[in-house]
Amino acid sequence: MSATLNTLHTALSLAASGVPVLPLRAGKVPFGNCRTCAGNACGGRPNMKHVGPCCCPGVCHAWAAATTVSAVIASPAWGAAWRQAVCVGYHPGGAGLTVVDLDNAEAIAWAHGALPPTRTVPTTRGEHWIYRGAVRSVNAVRPGVDIKSTMSYARYLGPGVGTMAALPETVRALAVKGPSPARSAPRAVTVPVPVGGGQCRHRTPAYLARGIAMAEQRITEARSAIHATVYRTFLAVLSAHGRCGCLTDAHVARLFAAAQAKGETVRHCNDAWTNARTALGM
């Protein structure tokens, strides 16, 4: 069985069990809106719980495209996406589920001490603990811990082992609490004062504004290699603007928001930013 047919078979099997699915492309991110729906021209509301009046037949509106309708999943409109897909994604909240994404050994150790046993699926770096019950999705509720449920997607990595338990109050409380203060925002931008008394070499603020806008656009329009694109973009911004003292937390927050809209976590954004600064000797 070809990779495409195997991926499609997995998607149809999940959909038949009531799990809304969607194809994920390189970088394990959803396919972007089609040209017809770009810029919300269709009236839909991407990344919102209700997509609105958009009736696009394609793999559109990111996670909100996830469906259990086999005729849609196997339709020609989705065919090109499945041929490009690297894996199957699913919308946990749409199936009444919550995925506690544990990204490292420390997070897994915390879960063993704080959460009841449930169905567990190994991931590249850690584990997914899957519970019955939906809650809002929040990244970085603890170091190395994300909650994926409503208005989010997770990568399907197999059926896992263990009996699925009801969503514990500990997870509900973390979702209400929101991101950990230590990781909810970009790290403060502290750059060396340049030679020349700290004077900005840019003649107009428009140069910086244009640079940030171009960086956001580069991240937003990336179709593959999202991690690498985010890092290279951060590197370019810091190289051009990181030594004059003009770059503010607001600018960095815009870049982080663009990266997270493409599926990056706050941790990945922080790592990419730190690595870019290190590479430039900042």
Outline the structure in words.
The protein is of the alpha+beta class. It is built from nine helices and ten strands. The chain has helices at residues 3-16, 70-73, 76-84, 105-114, 169-177, 205-220, 226-241, 249-261, 266-279, and strands spanning 21-25, 29-30, 87-90, 97-102, 119-122, 127-132, 138-142, 145-148, 154-155, 165-166. Strands 4, 5, 6, 7, 8 and 10 form a six-stranded mixed beta sheet that branches. The chain has a four-stranded antiparallel beta sheet with strand order 2-1-3-9. Residues 46-51 and 182-198 have low confidence and may be disordered.
Kindly list the characteristics that best describe this protein.
single chain, 282 residues, alpha+beta, six-stranded mixed sheet, four-stranded antiparallel sheet, 9 helices, 10 strands, 37% helix
